[in-house]
Design a protein that fits this description.
Layout: H1 3-18, H2 23-34, H3 44-66, H4 68-83, H5 91-102, H6 104-120, H7 124-142, H8 155-166, H9 175-185, H10 190-219, H11 226-251, H12 257-275
Helix pairs in contact: 1-2, 1-3, 1-11, 2-7, 3-10, 3-11, 4-5, 5-8, 6-8, 7-9, 7-12, 8-9, 9-10, 10-11
């Protein structure tokens, strides 16, 4: 894999993981659009998944670094809630376990249907339609005048937003997009919806990285992939941190409308490119 490709895909992963525009969809569409074939051959799918794990590790470091103080508080208070029950539960302690609870729906569905998802979803047409449909859904939810704060996040919210997060197993949906949509639909303000989405990503990305890394180590990592993986981790980490900072700063005073417009435009462009025969409908 050329280093330039690793840099581009790292930037794509970092930005699109936290902007509500679908990282998995863009990681498939960008090579498709430019005609890259970095993962050909009989082991192509396995090598691609290994590289994707590296990119996700970079974004995990980004969100962990950005919310490091919050994470330390959640871990401390969540642990105390279990081992020191005589002490009244704090809001942070409850939030810690609600965030864990929110990961269960996606984890269960992902474990049960991983092969079916890989085989049947992720085509350019499905990604394009998903970008449009879930973009419109984000725009609809964002119109609600939600005023709930992060501290109001409860068990019901965790399960509902977690169930929405499971839809992001379909490339093109966007994990951050659908969780922000779910949180806005439940009445949370934009800043709280984004924070819920970003903190929820920690256990999800961590679990995926650990699970897939074990598989990659077992299968072996090609030596010529070491440098591209390292570059991908660095670029996805830096761009991911910027995306988190920029998103939280932006939505304090503005709506999600630009992301909705982008998703619809990107989806229409992909469908148009397929329609005129510029690119095939398969990856």
């Amino acid at each position: 894999m050329p280093i330039l490709h690793a840099i581009v895909l790292g930037l794509v992963q970092g930005l699109s993981e936290f902007l509500p525009i679908s990282s998995s969809g863009h990681l498939l569409l960008v090579p498709w659009l430019f005609g890259w074939d970095d993962f050909g051959g009989p082991d192509g799918d396995r090598i691609k998944k290994t590289f994707d794990v590296a990119l996700h590790f970079g974004t995990f470091i980004a969100v962990l670094g950005y919310f490091r103080r919050d994470v330390v508080t959640y871990v401390r208070e969540g642990t105390r809630l279990v081992f020191k029950r005589s002490i009244p539960a704090t809001t942070d302690g409850k939030l810690a376990w609600f965030f864990v609870l929110s990961t269960i729906p996606a984890a269960v569905i992902g474990a049960l249907f991983e092969d079916a998802i890989d085989e049947r979803l992720g085509t350019p047409i499905i990604i394009a339609i998903s970008l449009i449909v879930f973009g419109v859904l984000l725009g609809w939810a964002d119109r609600m005048a939600g005023k709930r704060q992060l501290e109001a996040f409860g068990a019901r919210d965790a399960l509902l937003v977690g169930a929405a997060q499971a839809l992001a197993l379909n490339p093109g949906t966007s994990r951050s997009g659908i969780t922000m949509t779910g949180a806005r639909a439940l009445g949370f303000d934009r800043d709280s919806a984004a924070r819920i989405s970003f903190v929820m990503s920690l256990p999800v990305i961590f679990g995926a990285v650990v699970f897939k890394t074990l598989g990659a180590i077992t299968d072996g990592i090609p030596s010529d992939l070491y440098w591209p993986m390292a570059i991908g981790i660095i670029t996805s980490g830096i761009s991911g941190w910027i995306a988190i900072w920029g998103t939280l700063r932006y939505i304090r005073t503005r709506s999600f409308t630009p992301f909705v417009v982008y998703r619809i435009a990107a989806g229409i462009l992909v469908l148009a490119l397929i329609g005129i025969g510029f690119r095939d409908a398969s990856l």
